[in-house]
Design goal:
This is YbhB/YbcL family Raf kinase inhibitor-like protein. The chain is mainly beta. It has two helices and nine strands.
């Protein structure tokens, strides 16, 4: 399986990151999810799951930042802006991102679904993994990363990971 997202001069495009227009943000955080193009998905895959994170956040905040958890997506390309769109017919479930952290205080942005890159100090490299699964996961809206990882155990047929940068300035 292979995955790809659009880039602009090698970086995550502005509309999916900290330089998004105000109407593409929730509480000041980028909320428009990028499309994911999937090729060579296994024929026996039933669903896809997405995990988007920032390991470069560790020196800044002390932990790997979770930007997006999504499960039970159909085995097809993932359209842009599905995370917070009310106009999608796709039936999938999203987990908590790191905006829910008690260390951030209130009004820190959307706590479920996609929250875009906002590197504060330098270019960060974001890691996107898409999993092809042999089942639909039993997860409820607002699940945690540990539940996501446990529910996938024994059900991952294939996966693909890419690293893509987002600029700070």
């Amino acid at each position: 399986m292979k995955i790809e997202i659009p880039t602009m001069n090698g970086f995550i495009p502005d509309c999916y990151s900290k330089f998004a227009n105000a109407d593409q943000k929730i509480e000041g955080k980028p909320s428009r999810s990028f499309p994911i193009f999937i090729t060579d998905a296994p024929d026996n895959a039933k669903t896809l799951a997405v995990y988007f994170r920032d390991f470069d956040s560790v020196p800044v905040c002390g932990f790997t930042w979770i930007h997006w958890l999504a499960a039970n997506l159909p085995v097809q390309d993932v359209p842009a802006n599905i995370s917070h769109s009310k106009n999608t017919s796709l039936d999938f479930v999203q987990g908590n991102n790191s905006n829910i952290s008690r260390f951030l205080g209130k009004n820190s942005g959307p706590v479920e679904g996609y929250t875009g890159p906002m590197p504060p100090d330098k270019t960060h490299y974001y890691t996107l993994t898409v999993y092809a699964l042999d089942t639909k996961l039993d997860l409820k809206k607002g699940y945690w990363l540990n539940d996501f990882l446990h529910k996938m155990e024994g059900h991952i047929i294939d996966s693909a990971t890419i690293s893509v940068p987002s600029r700070a300035k």
